[in-house]
Amino acid sequence: MERCSSVSRDDSAPCSSPPPASPPHILPSPRHPPPVPSSSPLSALTPLPPPVQRGSSLVGAMVDVSKWPLFSLLSNEELSTIRQACVFGIYANEAIYITHSNEVFVFGCNSSSCLGTGDSLSTIVPKKLDFLRGKKVVSLSYGSGPHVLLATEDGQLFAWGHNEQESSPSVVWLTSSMALTHDGEVYAWGYNNCGQVGSGNSANQPYPRRVTGSLQGKTAISITCGQTSSMALIDNGEVYGWGYNGNGQLGIGNNGNQLQPCRLTALQELCISQIVCGYGHCLALTDEGLLYAWGANTYGQLGTGNKSNQLSPVQVMQDKERVVEIAACHSTHTSAAKTQSGQVYMWGQCRGQSIVTPHLTYFASTDDVFACFATPSVMWRLTSMEHDDFLTVAEALRKEFDSPETADLKFSVDGKCIHVHKAVLKIRCEHFRSMFRSQWTEDQQDVIEIGQFSYPVYRSFLQFLYTDTVDLPPEDAIGLLDLATSYCENRLKRLCQQIIKRGITVENAFTLLSAAIRYDAEDLEVFCFRFCVNHLTQVTQTGAFWQVDGGMLKEFISRASRCGAFKN
Q1: CA angle 472, 477, 478 (to 5 degrees)
Q2: pLDDT tens digit string along 255-289?
Q3: Which of 276, 412, 415, 450 is the most interior residue, by most CB within 10 Å?
């Protein structure tokens, strides 16, 4: 099951074979719930009330989706169109994304027809879901099998993917789902062996049924699900759980399953603002930024410093600053949290290791933890890309390079001007820091003449200070290597050497070797020398070889001889 403010579901056993492909379905209104046969065509049934995104919504993170390997299949142009995305599936091999124009695309393995394309064919080329044309997605969640639930702004709830029922002794995926309406009512349906549907019995539920009992008259603002357990957060901060409880994941002080919602009385003195579920554990965050955990702890996913299950909520990260966000996912045993200052912690199963206490990372978001350390590397929520009009510091600097509108200084090289900003140069380069702090005449000039280096070389150097990148052919990189040596820019020097190594050919090898010796680039010198020796016959027939001064030529022949280059 995956947490969401509008849709969610769970899972249990592995499957033996995928079911036949069927088109996505619009689920009927829970107030009039006739069963939906798996062969029924896609049709506009009575919609759910518009789903609400409150409390611990899946939507809202601003992340870089290229951190998930699956998105490396897309071009930069395609990536730039993405507004929201979700990676899901048993092996994180399926993805769905929504563009800025509200078009929905899918790609990946398509297990159990979970891509909603009407077939079971895998695709590495994104396919548009035409049945969602003209609709705005407000919430999305996925479960095992896999299967997907998607809610639109007009209140419709779509479902597709795995839909197996227990009809034979064979082992199959058995799933259940939940939905939260705009009015705060919780509905559930599907497999119910442990009471995860919350109906008061263990009979399977073939269509959406309202979860009542202790939830009667209460307004839920968030729902979340584990393997075969369900949780709901009420608008007054109360937490209720039902379903499987073998590891204490309901947090009620025992490990007995619950067929109906049961309040977590251990949290009754606290106001919970967010709750998430992992495979068999739960995390809850109070409105004061305190973190509590309970349930399964085989991999240290509770962060308590040991691997003992907890039947009741226990506080973790007491020695850390205020927590503002928590993260977990039904298909993993990984936990993550973000603090008020932006520090991101992870614990649990992380790339095969069991981390039993919260570990400080260098990530910027909890989503990065799941991209890099969760197994599988799914997304724990529907993530959002940066807005079109938002620029990071790096992007803003890149944009303003050579911009006459904002520059306060110009360099004139070979009769051409390059527009820059004194502050940026002082921050990025010791050479300019000295120039603009001392009594250098350049500090008083609006235009600085450069005669030692060519325009392409000097422009590339200044652009490097804004972008950390270099884009020059190997021959020009020699001149930039000279500049980097003169200005004591060691990182730039290393980048130039990399460019030269990647661009070395028989024709330019000896020229590059000469430059490496002249600019005292020892690593590059060794590389070029070996290349020349390995291609000695061809190199000695080039014009560059015979144009060098006699002293260097003698030194090269001597070194090559000592290396055995002239032995038969």
Answers
A1: 160
A2: 999 999 999 999 999 999 999 999 999 999 999 99
A3: 276
For residue 347 the two structure tokens come to: 């614990």
- Residue 272 φ/ψ, nearest 5 degrees: -85, 135
d(CA 10, CA 221): 19
Q: Model confidence over 59-92: pLDDT tens digits?
A: 444 578 888 999 999 998 899 899 999 999 999 9
Contact 7, 157 (CB under 8 A): yes
How is residue 41 annotated by DSSP? P
Cis preceding linkage at 37, omega within 30: no
Calpha distance 151→136 (Å, rounded): 9
Give the alpha-carbon dihedral of 271, 276, 281, 285, to 10 degrees. Answer: -30
Separation CA 409–CA 263 (nearest Å): 66
pTM of the model: 0.69
CA-CA distances (angstroms) from residue 156 to 49, 137, 183, 186, 519? 7, 10, 14, 15, 68
Strands 409-413 and 25-26: unpaired
